Amino acid sequence: MKATTILATLLLPAIMVGSPNEKEPRRVVLYTLGENEQVHYGEYFAIQDIRGDRFACVTFDAVKQTYTFVFNGKRVITSEEPPEILQLNVREEKGYTVIYQQQGKTYVNWKDAVQGPFDGAYSTTGNGDMFEYRMENDHYVWNSGVAEGPFEEVSFQGDSFSVPNALFYYRLVGRWYARERDGKNTRAYNIHEERVINNRNASDSRLTKSGNHAYIYKENGKWHVNINGRDSRGYASVYALQLTESGKYSYCYKENGKWHVNINGRDSRGYESVGYPRLTESGNHAYIYKENGKWHVNINGAESRPYNGYIYNLCVIEDGRYAFIYEENDKEHVNINGRDSRGYSMIIDLALDNTGACTFLYSDDDGRVYK
Model-level pTM? Predict the structure, then answer.
């Protein structure tokens, strides 16, 4: 990922839906950046929400070395570290939950109500009305304005346990329990509990409502994937395990110095590198790979032309339509279903919804930012 770029003072989004080759989109002023302010964009953090004429982002002050969460033109919080966005809906008046740091303590802004300070706070699986926080060695759950606990440990990884409709899981006296939606507490069986007890390297587990399950584990120095009780052979490395409700799966692995992608038991050839694996319930799949020093995109087995620069933000939807960003000749472009946009100075974010409409945020040569 390239380094952060300082942007000019005006943030001017416009809407671009469908083909990127259409005429210049509508532009509306939404936010003005401060003198030393820039849109924060890094390898580990890139979150913008750009819907209609509403806008949310995180900015960085290069002089003060602080980060600011901006929501529909309002500076909501300022933090010493990049804030963590648990929930974001720009259509709601206060549609956000944000974890941030101030003076060494952790706070959570939940719909414009500040909670804390805490010794730590952690994200959930996308429900901004619930989060875990820690006070010394005790763990608690903030559940829509109600604090529950203390617990020895808390987990929101419902795909790891046998109670898929539970709100969250907690450990007391060494045993895991599920807090169900009706308030009951049920003993929860972890699908890889024995593996966790005997081997601390089990990770990345999945469990669907239909009962399909999968996880990654390390044994005798090799990494394996278990899909519905069947173990793969050992690999040097494994990551990006995906499992659909119907049991389709994919993962990336390294073997003999090459990276491969396994999709429903079929292995790709070896590459120098792979990334952005995507798998839909309908079976459409995509990933990027590097071969002979150049990057390519594989969409359902069809391979793109080679690109000299990096490819990122690969999206694919249920009907097989796709979009991605690529770098070429010191410009960034968007490819939507095989059609290339013109080059931009920088493309900050891209979204492809389930109707096939594509939206992206970009900076042009005039230094302004558009949508």
Answer: 0.56
